[in-house]
From TrEMBL:
Alphabetical list of Pfam families matching this protein: adh_short_C2
Protein name (database record): 3-oxoacyl-ACP reductase
Entry superkingdom: Bacteria
InterPro entries referenced in this protein's UniProt entry, alphabetically: KR_dom, NAD(P)-bd_dom_sf, Sc_DH/Rdtase_CS, SDR_fam
Originating species: Streptomyces glycanivorans
Molecular function via GO: 3-oxoacyl-[acyl-carrier-protein] reductase (NADPH) activity
Keyword Disulfide bond: no
Amino acid sequence: MADRYLHFTGTAPGRFLSRRLGLPQPAPLRRWTLETPALEGPLLHLTAGDSTHADTLGPVLAATGLKVTTRAERPVAVVLDATGVTTAAGLADVHAALHPVVRSLAGGGRVVVLGTAPSPDDHHQAAAQQALEGFVRSLGKELGRGATAQLVRLAPGADAASAESTLRFLLSPRSAYVSGQVVQLTADAPGEVTDWAAPLYGRTALVTGAARGIGASVASVLARDGARVICLDVPQAQEELVRTADRLGATALPLDITAPDAADLIAAAAPDGLDVLVHNAGITRDRRLANMPADRWASVIDVNLDSVLRTTDALLKAGTVNRGGRIVATASIAGIAGNNGQTNYAASKAGIIGLVRSLAPRAAAEHGVTVNAVAPGFIETKMTAAVPLFIREAGRRMNSLSQGGLPVDVAETTAWFAQPASGAVNGQIVRVCGQSLLGA
């Protein structure tokens, strides 16, 4: 559904009126297209404190395709290496580095702060590095004009090369609706990509709930990035599922993911195994708890959470998810902040977060597989188009970018998780919500 307010504030009368009334002024977001695959402008590389990553970070930033410099009048991106900040006094270097440049950041620009994991053995270092999280989340709410800010934490002992896929994503149009997020990397080997224009070439991906909406967009982006895609959805949606699969040159698999033999049928459809498993299928059956019958509760838990647990366990046990594989689940901001009338849905999505945090380290150790989740906020779909007007407008505006996201924003984040080079990205819950004012 078109965002008429966004269009109106892009006109001269709209800009004048919204300024006079103190209303939100959302900036159109620049997303990836074949014609404009990268941001345009210089990348400003700054350092706060003493860094041990200077030698490895420079080549990684150069690989983004942006012109890296230590001085720029109007940078499109700023990367601040704050890994060397270990004391409260050292935070002054963060202010000194970014204070002079934030006003000159180009519209739709990116700020990425590199930090390290807070140490359990050094409370001064832990305080300084945790401070960066509050700093980045606040900065993301201040930048405006479609700009975003993120914090990327390098694991102890890891070098900047482990962050390449993450920095490529965050410093590109693909991350347009991701802001105020913290990504903690592990020390695991990141993996290799032969062709960054098709990072999933030769890999097989399965997407559940792929007939329409976010699932169809995820399938489309994975196919764009070179994957062989299997599109799964319930038999009732077979006609639409087949149309989506045919459009992408993918395989349609009509299947109820809650069926007892779902994992066996998935394994049969992927005889060479899966490299990417995306759990996107989900339903809502909204009612306040006092008015919610048991069947409405049970159906949401079964589809959104229990089926994910069952199929993931079975596919990992059977070896259907290949080593080096990626599992990506779909959580929700509702699972983080809660939502009136959605105790069942919020419980299921919070459960996904618990699944990811618990399973990720064990899946990596035992199967060589990473497990992450996207947590969408207000995304423009048929479901949100049916929301009453005033509630819909509140959902759109209550974030740092003052607008709703698109299904492709969730898909791009999923594709980043799915890359072979994202091996150091594990156990992460990344909100695709424009830095919603709800939740953390």
